[in-house]
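Researcher: Re-running this chain for the archive, since the previous output was lost when a drive failed. Same request as before.
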Amino acid sequence: MNWKVRAIRGATTATSNSKEAIREAVTELLDEIEAHNQFDPEDIVSVIFTTTKDLDAIFPAAIARERSNWDHVPLLDVQQMHVEGSLERCIRILIQINTPKRQIEMYHSYLRKAKNLRPDWSLAQISTPSSIQSHRF
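Model: Regenerated structure tokens:
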């Protein structure tokens, strides 16, 4: 098998700037990404979380570190660049993994109010496998 580093993107929003709301959003996002991509945490190269400036109650990486087998995954939190009028209370993720899958096979999860950030990926992911293979990103 030819393993390569691939990237998985995703985003969600928290209902408020509280530890509980951020924990709920991050957990839901990571559950969704893991369920659709079926990877072993041992294959994760690194994970970068970004949050908008209105989320500072807890680090998303601290939440991820509590997951089973994620205690040795390199994690990083950074603040998303502020753009006036952009989506509020948004948490984005970039996971780099070693996998034999092609990049087009990676499932990118956009949840809650973040669903509209990448509508092109949402539509492609519900298409049939043959149409996905012919679709270029």
